[in-house]
Amino acid sequence: MQRCKQCESPVAKTDVNCVNCGDLVNSPVKSKTNFRQHFGKIVTGLFILSAALTVVALFTNYVGSFITLLATTIALLMVKKSADEMSSQQ
User: pLDDT tens across 5-37, in order?
Assistant: First the structure.
């Protein structure tokens, strides 16, 4: 027996809508690849910006502290690698 994805009530195979909540039973599931790809692009852009600001921090005082920017760059690198692995698993 199938279950409704919204309310988990039992649904017959011939039903189009859930009797309890009215949600479509066989509605297509949206894939999360678009969100993962957009998230990966945003993290990549932030990583590149942070790496550039880290280099600038070596020579000027117009941006934040070098240590802070270096830590941020390393953290974004780890997030970027994790996002790349999540999107490649599909």
Answer: 778 888 888 878 888 887 777 766 566 667 888
Residue type, 39: F
Contact 83, 76 (CB under 8 A): no
Per residue, what are the HEC states of the chain? CEECCCCCCEECCCCCECCCCCCECCCCCCCCHHHHHHHHHHHHHHHHHHHHHHHHHHHCCCCCCHHHHHHHHHHHHHHHHHHHHHHHCC
The Cα–Cα gap between 51 and 57 comes to 10
Query: Is 47 buried (19+), middle (13-18) or exposed (0-12) by CB count in 10 A?
Result: buried
- Answering whether pTM is above 0.85, one says no
